[in-house]
Structure formats: structure tokens, C-alpha cells
Write a structure and sequence with these properties.
The radius of gyration is 25 Å and the shape is elongated. Among the domains are: 42 residues, Helicase, Ruva Protein, domain 3 (Orthogonal Bundle); 107 residues, Tetrahydropterin Synthase, Chain A, CATH 3.30.479. With 276 residues, it is of the alpha+beta class. The protein contains 11 helices and 9 strands. It has a 4-stranded antiparallel β-sheet.
């Protein structure tokens, strides 16, 4: 009896096993899906579904670029041991390439990603989770921290720098990426910082200042001062540059623009840290 694509798909959903394993199981059992599922269980292949309920908090952050832009992906595994496995590295790179080529159009590649992950679960023996991804176009720069392979690690950063002319910005691009990896800013500037984060911080500070019993006008000035300090901690352009704390990132860009005789601005950035 011939095996149809739909039968293979149905068995995959039921068992979590890889496509070729499901096809073989159906062929071995005259396309009877229940017998095929039992066959997979007996072979120890129908285990992905059960494993998919287990926590996956380890894994890798991956970065990949082409002439058009850069993709960043986080894939989780259950153990650090698996994250150091060459098969897992290959899986992460394959998925990152799909994200890169599709420009992070998840809907167009989700079936392929699901197939890659389900096939790997059966081989590696751990739950594997596609957590998140992003893609940015333009003049991109990147950095991977705690590297476990080429462009694979525990923290990854990508960013775009905009300039008025074509100049070499590799050094400042990489250095700002390293800065972002170290400081974990929440936004590029104050305007794009999540309003909920701002309100929560303001309310905390207000409650603290109430206990000082100072006049309202003094409290307002103290609030503004503390909020400026908060922005220095969480807003990239306001942060002190880790390589030279006498400069903010904004001042660094201003100085470099002057040296290069060309205005340089940060357009966007993405920072992924494993498990966060």
C-alpha cells in the first residue's frame, strides 16, 4: 500500500518523529498509522513529543550575515552538554540560514524549522526549542560573547550604523556591539524606551522620595535627577562607554563622526542573551 504525504504528516504530528522515520514506519506497517506509531515507539523514535514538554534553558545564540543584512537566532536545548555538540551546532546554523535567507519571514520557513528540530530531537535525545529571531538590513556589525563556535555563543549582538558616505567602521561597530553585550541596554534612546518601564521606575523612585519628607518642588528635582541616572543605565546612547567611561555612546559617535568627517548614527540593535 502506498504512503501519502498526509499520512506522513499526521504521523509526525502524533509521534514527533522525523519525516523519513515516519515514512519508513508507515511503509513497514501497510500505511496503518496506529501500527506505525507503535512501531516508532518500539524503535525508540517516537519520543520527541514527550521530550517537547521538558524545559530547555541552555542552547546557543547564532549570528549569520550576507550582502543584504544579518540574522540573529536563539535555539534552546535542555543541557549545556548538547549545546556543545557538533550536530546541535549544525542545526542552529541551518535554522539561522533559513531566517537569514527569508529575512525573518517566519511563516515562510516555520515548517522547515519544525522539521529540522523534530528530526534532531529524535537523534540528540533532548527537547530543542526555537525561541526567537530577528533580521536587520543595511550596514551591519555583530559580536558573539562566550563563543562555542564560529558566530555561536551565549550572547549575541547585531547593530546597524548609518553614514553619509562609504567608510570603514569595523572597529567602532564591533566595539559598540561588545559594549551592548556587556551593558544590556533596553533601548537605543529615551524616546524608544518602553513607557511601562519608565512608569514603573518613576513610581518606585517617588515612593522612596516620599519618605524624605522634602517639599514637592525638591522631590520633583530629585526625581528628574534619579531618572536621568536611570536613563544612563538602560538607554544605549546615554550609557558610559565601557572602553572609555569618560565618553557616552552618544559622545563616542559624535567624536568619531568628527574624525571621519561624516555623520555616524546607530539605526537599530538587537541583543540576545541565552535564557533571557
Amino acid at each position: 500500500m502506498s504512503v501519502t504525504a498526509k499520512q506522513v504528516q499526521d504521523l509526525r504530528k502524533m509521534s514527533g518523529a522525523g519525516m523519513m522515520d515516519c515514512k519508513a514506519a508507515l511503509a513497514e506497517n501497510n500505511a496503518d498509522i496506529d501500527l506505525a506509531f507503535q512501531w516508532l515507539r518500539e524503535k525508540g523514535i517516537a519520543k520527541a513529543q514527550k521530550k517537547s514538554t521538558r524545559d530547555a534553558n541552555e542552547g546557543l545564540v547564532s549570528i549569520m550575515s550576507n550582502d543584504n543584512g544579518t540574522a540573529i537566532v536563539e535555539i534552546n536545548s535542555e543541557t549545556d552538554f548538547v549545546s556543545r555538540n557538533n550536530d546541535f551546532h549544525s542545526l542552529v546554523k541551518d535554522i539561522t540560514k533559513l531566517v537569514l535567507d527569508s529575512k525573518n519571514d517566519y511563516d515562510s520557513v516555520k515548517d522547515k524549522i519544525s522539521t529540522i528540530i523534530n528530526d534532531a530531537i529524535g537523534v540528540i535525545g533532548e527537547n530543542i526549542v526555537f525561541k526567537r529571531s530577528n533580521y536587520i538590513e543595511g550596514n551591519t556589525y555583530s559580536y558573539v560573547h562566550n563563543s562555542l563556535g564560529e558566530n555561536l555563543g551565549k550572547i549575541g549582538v547585531i547593530l546597524t550604523l548609518e553614514t553619509e558616505k562609504d567608510i570603514d567602521l569595523k572597529d567602532i561597530g564591533k566595539n559598540i556591539c561588545m559594549h551592548i553585550a556587556a551593558t544590556s541596554p533596553k533601548s537605543l534612546d529615551e524616546e524608544t524606551l518602553d513607557k511601562d518601564i519608565i512608569e514603573v521606575e518613576k513610581n518606585i523612585i517617588k515612593e522612596q522620595l516620599k519618605e524624605t519628607s522634602k517639599p514637592d518642588d525638591i522631590i520633583e528635582k530629585m526625581l528628574n535627577g534619579k531618572m536621568n541616572k536611570f536613563y544612563e543605565e538602560v538607554v544605549l546612547l546615554n550609557q558610559k562607554y565601557v572602553i572609555d567611561p569618560s565618553l557616552t555612546i552618544s559622545k563616542l559617535l559624535e567624536n568619531t563622526s568628527s574624525e571621519k568627517e561624516c555623520k555616524i548614527t546607530i539605526n537599530s540593535f538587537t541583543r540576545y542573551e541565552l535564557g533571557q
